[in-house]
Amino acid sequence: MGMSKEWKKEEVIDYLRESIAELTEESKDSAPVDIHEPIYDMGVDSMKTIQLIVLIEQHFDINFDDEELIMESFSTIDRITDCIVNKLRS
Predict the structure, then answer these.
(1) Where is each Carrier domain found (predicted)?
(2) 88 within 8 A of 7, measured Cβ to Cβ
(3) What is the domain range of residue 71?
(4) Within a domain: residue 1?
(5) Residues 67-89: what's their mean pLDDT?
(6) Is residue 29 part of a domain?
(7) Does residue 56 lie in a domain region?
(8) Of 13, 44, 48, 86, which residue has the fewest beta carbons closer than 10 angstroms?
């Protein structure tokens, strides 16, 4: 149980794309492609951002501190990926 999986950045990005597609009720085929596009433009509002953070914390078995939960860090798939990867390494 205590073994933590080594996540690759591509796996994190794929997970985020799928999760955003589910939250915005898009089909997986039309999952967001541009990891630098603001997730707000993909249909992720503040409530969906909170849902996404909860999904991320559960999926990757991590917890973000309140001071880490700033909009800038969660504005694009690329930035969210960096936050997750940094958290997994700490």
Answers:
(1) 10-88
(2) yes
(3) 9-24+34-89
(4) no
(5) 93
(6) no
(7) yes
(8) 86
Q: How many domains does the chain have?
A: 1
CB contact set of 88 (below 8 Å; sequence gap of 6+): 4, 7, 60, 62
Model confidence at 77: pLDDT above 50:
yes
Which of 89, 82, 51, 48 is closest to 68 using CA atoms? 82
Q: Per the domain annotation, does 3 fall within a domain?
A: no
What span, in angstroms and rounded, lies between the C-alpha atoms of 90 and 81? 14
Neighbours of 48 (CB within 10 A): 18
Task: Report the percentage of the chain scoring pLDDT > 90.
Answer: 70
Q: What is the pLDDT of residues 26-67, one digit of tens each?
A: 766 665 578 999 999 999 999 999 999 999 999 999 999 998
Q: Is the dihedral of CA 14, 19, 88, 1 positive or negative?
A: negative
